[in-house]
Structures are given as structure tokens and as C-alpha cells.
Amino acid sequence: xxxxxxxxxxxxxxxxxxxxxxxxxxxxxxxxxxxxxxxxxxxxxxxxxxxxxxxxxxxxxxxxxxxxxxxxxxxxxxxxxxxxxxxxxxxxxxxxxxxxxxxxxxxxxxxxxxxxxxxxxxxxxxxxxxxxxxxxxxxxxxxxxxxxxxxxxxxxxxxxxxxxxxxxxxxxxxxxxxxxxxxxxxxxxxxxxxxxxxxxxxxxxxxxxxxxxxxxxxxxxxxxxxxxxxxxxxxxxxxxxxxxxxxxxxxxxxxxxxxxxxxxxxxxxxxxxxxxxxxxxxxxxxxxxxxxxxxxxxxxxxxx
Length: 304
Prior knowledge:
By secondary structure, this protein is of the alpha/beta class. The chain has 10 helices and 13 strands. It has helices at 14-30, 48-51, 57-60, 68-75, 134-143, 156-164, 175-180, 214-221, 226-241, 288-303, and strands spanning 6-10, 40-44, 81-85, 97-102, 110-113, 128-130, 148-150, 170-174, 189-190, 205-210, 250-256, 261-269, 276-284. The strands form 3 sheets. Strands 2-1-3-10-4 form a 5-stranded mixed sheet, with helices on both faces. A 5-stranded mixed sheet has the order 7-6-8-5-9, sandwiched between helices. A 3-stranded antiparallel sheet has the order 11-12-13. A hairpin with a 4-residue loop joins strand 11 and strand 12 (261-269). Helix 9 packs parallel to helix 10 (288-303). The radius of gyration is 19 Å and the shape is globular.
């Protein structure tokens, strides 16, 4: 067998592999050299975030836990590109690694899953909601201070199993992930953006490569989605100003209208949900980062 032209690095969860398949299919369709069956290989890399399941990400070190080992493999030239859920990508990338490409974004909203209720408001008093996300926990408590929020880690399938076993009364998962796994029917309901503002970059798949790899950069340019890129750039700029990590309950969503204008809503919450600080911005997609940065400065000043 000939050496593959492109090696893709990914985490090994069913969702990560499904997203990697989407990227490989897009590249095969857009790049004739990659159409052959053996042109693309996949390397599964176990990350710290996959190994540490006994405590919240915030305590274990935050977002970089899902990317560190993959970044190292790329810089050591063991892989050529990496596929990431953009909400797991730290706001600062290591030297030598570029993020030139995102696929068209899936629905960014959160799905609500529960055998006992169809929404957060319909949960019985004192219900237990499992989530590993400080954002989801804080926004739930802001709406329902009576609810008990507990740490709930693991991949989508293991969380669904725990929910079915009655470990918690409800949980929340990204609708995008459920759809990509063919599990959207598991959702009891879909939460509106106002009710549960998504994580920054939720629903977007990002592809990183080495900064100096011109061949791969050109290939990725053929599948990159400009509107997703602009929206996520705005959201990540908001996050960057607030030093966003898994230690801070932050939500943000930018949407591109038919007129090319970007509308952004960003929120920062106290961990216990006692206060929420919000900023909204609208402007040209070309100013995406500036809009997000400006919104972040407003929220930062208000929350001091």
C-alpha cells in the first residue's frame, strides 16, 4: 500500500470519528488527489480530556486537555491535519499551528434530554441535572435556583446510558453532536438561544494544520465555509477578552443574516447563576473580531 497523502488526527469518541469522516468526505470530493481510497489515513489520539473523567474539566486544566496531545502529534509531523469540535479549541493556538478551515456549521443550540420533563421549566422541584459544563449549570440555576446541578462527564453514549439508568433527571447535550451521531430523536426538546445561550463555537467543526504546510492549507481552502468562520471568529474574540476557559460560565452566538450583517449575543454568568451580564452587537462580517472584542470589553467592565 502506498503512503497516504494526508493523515488526519482525531480523538477516538464516536462523535470525533463521525466528524472526521465528514471532513475526509469533503476533502475527497473537493481535492482530486485525495479521492483514492488509500489517500487519507486516520490516526486516533487519546487526549488528557478523554482520560480524566472523574472531575470537572475546570479542575483538570480546561479546554486544552482535548487538543494538547493532538497538537504535539502535528508539530512532530505524525499527522497533517486535526479535526476538532471548535468549542473544545483553546482561544490561543500553539506556535506553528494554524486554524484555516471550518465546515458549514450545524444547529448550535442545546438539546434537553429527560425522561421526566420536556423542558427545564417543566422539571419537578429539586430535580437533579447532570452536566460537565459550567455554562449550562449557571444558566440552569439562573432560571431554576431550586435545581441541583451535578458533574456529568463522558461521551454522548455514556451520558445517555447514565440518564436512562436514572443517575440524573435530565441532561443537556449539543444538538449538533446528536444529529451527527443520528441520535437527535433522543432529545426531549431543543432549548431556545435566549433560554440557553450555546457555548462559543458550538456546532462548528474546525480543522487545524501546520502553519508552514502550504499544500494542506490550499486543500483546506477548498472546503472552508466563510460565514461559519466569521461567526466563530466573533464568538472566540468575545471569549478571549473574558479569558474564557472551562472555568468561566460563558455563552456566545453570532449569526450571519442574508444581508451579510453579523448579529452577536454574549453572556457571562456567575457560577451559581445569581447574576448574568449580557452584551449584543451587530455589524459587518468583515468586523467580526472587533464586534466580539467590543462586546467582551462591555461584559468584562460590567462584571467587575
